[in-house]
Amino acid sequence: MFNTIGIAGLGLIGGSFGLAIKHNKLSKVVIGFDTNEENLNDALKLELIDIGASSYKSFSICDFVIVSVPPSQTAKVVLGLFEVLKENTIIIDVASVKGPIIADIKNSIPKGISYIPTHPIAGTENFGPRSAFRQLFNDKYFIITPINNITFAEKKVEEFAKKIKMKVKYMDAQRHDEVFAYVSHLPHVIAYNLVNLIWHKKENDEAYSFVGGGFKDFTRIAKSNEKMWSDIFFLNKKNILSAIDDYIENLLVLKTIIENNEEKKLLETLKNIRLFKEHLDG
Ligand SMILES: NC(=O)C1=CN([C@@H]2O[C@H](COP(=O)(O)OP(=O)(O)OC[C@H]3O[C@@H](n4cnc5c(N)ncnc54)[C@H](O)[C@@H]3O)[C@@H](O)[C@H]2O)C=CC1
Ligand SMILES: O=C(O)C(=O)Cc1ccc(O)cc1
């Protein structure tokens, strides 16, 4: 499908793309670069990529580039790559926030290069090249937030995503950031916050160590990469603050029902939520 794919940032996402590309033979060669030398060496040892680059200059031969660095670095890396890429190259970023990154890039796209903002809704709480695995993207959504019209380049990216078994959807970037503030960023805020609460309780009372499966299920994502999540919280600040306010308001409604011993209302509320959750999970 491509002659040379370049991957900038060889952690969970970049490394998993490398494995999926190699397995599906989507490129003759995969070049990778990571500013962290240990991660670059690990990516080579784990065969996530074929060739390790010593700088972005080597990406000048690529016809497709994936930028999978932390969100706060994404625009800077894409703009830097614009200086070295050849004509007709397609470059995508995969950052979890879209609007502010697109705003930093969209007026600097060189003629002949296609920049396509994307977001694979596939991940785990783990990070770094050692956490990469080939099947990460299977059956997951791949969102494209096109800057203008859908052109040949978007279609090519769509084809690429489908070849690694992803389900492609198009979405407006602003709407993406509003929705993901609720369905992804808010759950991370709450999980981090709940673990923090229990941690401080435990400092004064060891009994707070007796956590069960529910707590563990609910807080798995509090083990996620703090660099990535602090970037996301700041980049999508406005939407996340609204989601937190909305959440607090909803929590207070539940608090009042419990406080007032409204048994019938509580049963009905919990039942309706359970039925919706069962429907969500299919
Ligand atoms: N972790 C997840 O579940 C998901 C993450 N994403 C997005 O993918 C991107 C990467 O995330 P992960 O792979 O999870 O992070 P990660 O922490 O596993 O990997 C990021 C890699 O980028 C490297 N890096 C940092 N600055 C760099 C630069 N200037 N040039 C080259 N390499 C650089 C780091 O050394 C690290 O190896 C982020 O933008 C994130 O928002 C998207 C979907 C899911
Ligand atoms: O670990 C999990 O369940 C996640 O929620 C992974 C994840 C993290 C960030 C994204 O932008 C998309 C997916």
UniProtKB/TrEMBL annotation:
<dbReference type="InterPro" id="IPR008927">
    <property type="entry name" value="6-PGluconate_DH-like_C_sf"/>
</dbReference>
<protein>
    <recommendedName>
        <fullName>prephenate dehydrogenase</fullName>
        <ecNumber>1.3.1.12</ecNumber>
    </recommendedName>
</protein>
<dbReference type="InterPro" id="IPR046826">
    <property type="entry name" value="PDH_N"/>
</dbReference>
<keyword id="KW-0057">Aromatic amino acid biosynthesis</keyword>
<keyword id="KW-0827">Tyrosine biosynthesis</keyword>
<dbReference type="GO" id="GO:0004665">
    <property type="term" value="F:prephenate dehydrogenase (NADP+) activity"/>
</dbReference>
<dbReference type="GO" id="GO:0006571">
    <property type="term" value="P:tyrosine biosynthetic process"/>
</dbReference>
<comment type="similarity">
    <text>Belongs to the prephenate/arogenate dehydrogenase family.</text>
</comment>
<dbReference type="InterPro" id="IPR050812">
    <property type="entry name" value="Preph/Arog_dehydrog"/>
</dbReference>
<dbReference type="Pfam" id="PF20463">
    <property type="entry name" value="PDH_C"/>
</dbReference>
<comment type="pathway">
    <text>Amino-acid biosynthesis; L-tyrosine biosynthesis; (4-hydroxyphenyl)pyruvate from prephenate (NAD(+) route): step 1/1.</text>
</comment>
<dbReference type="GO" id="GO:0008977">
    <property type="term" value="F:prephenate dehydrogenase (NAD+) activity"/>
</dbReference>
<dbReference type="InterPro" id="IPR003099">
    <property type="entry name" value="Prephen_DH"/>
</dbReference>
<keyword id="KW-0560">Oxidoreductase</keyword>
<keyword id="KW-0028">Amino-acid biosynthesis</keyword>
<dbReference type="InterPro" id="IPR036291">
    <property type="entry name" value="NAD(P)-bd_dom_sf"/>
</dbReference>
<keyword id="KW-0520">NAD</keyword>
<dbReference type="GO" id="GO:0070403">
    <property type="term" value="F:NAD+ binding"/>
</dbReference>
<feature type="domain" description="Prephenate/arogenate dehydrogenase">
    <location>
        <begin position="3"/>
        <end position="282"/>
    </location>
</feature>
<dbReference type="InterPro" id="IPR046825">
    <property type="entry name" value="PDH_C"/>
</dbReference>
<dbReference type="Pfam" id="PF02153">
    <property type="entry name" value="PDH_N"/>
</dbReference>
